[in-house]
Write a structure and sequence with these properties.
single chain, mainly alpha, 5 helices, 2 strands, binds zinc ion
Length: 107
């Protein structure tokens, strides 16, 4: 239905990302590529999502160079593993600094 396409585009994920996503899932055999699954600690889980190996934010801040959506920076991941990875990445970010007034300080 047409309206669902409009919604999809409104969320910022166009058909180009959709195509790329399927390409990555196909390339990785629809199996999770996270360190836990790949490292053999677990039976590899089925992947339905695509993760940026280097977070997109790194490209914005100049910590990483190039195109964040390059296939070399993408990997298929399981939904639950994706959540774990995102949490880990957030943990590595510097904590929000709080000023003397008790409000977060913007850099
Ligand atoms: Zn995994």
């Amino acid at each position: 239905m047409a309206w669902s396409n409009i919604n999809r585009h409104a969320r910022g994920y166009g058909s180009q990302w959709e195509k790329l996503r399927l390409q990555i899932l196909e390339r990785d055999g629809h199996l999770c590529q996270c360190p836990d699954c790949k490292g053999g600690f677990l039976q590899p889980l089925p992947a339905h999502e695509v993760d940026h190996i280097k977070p997109k934010a790194w490209f914005k801040t100049g910590k990483a160079q190039g195109n964040p959506d390059d296939p070399s920076n993408l990997r298929a991941v399981n939904r639950e593993c994706h959540k774990k990875l995102t949490k880990l990445q957030k943990g590595h970010r510097p904590a929000v600094r709080v000023g003397l007034d008790g409000f977060p300080v913007e850099d």
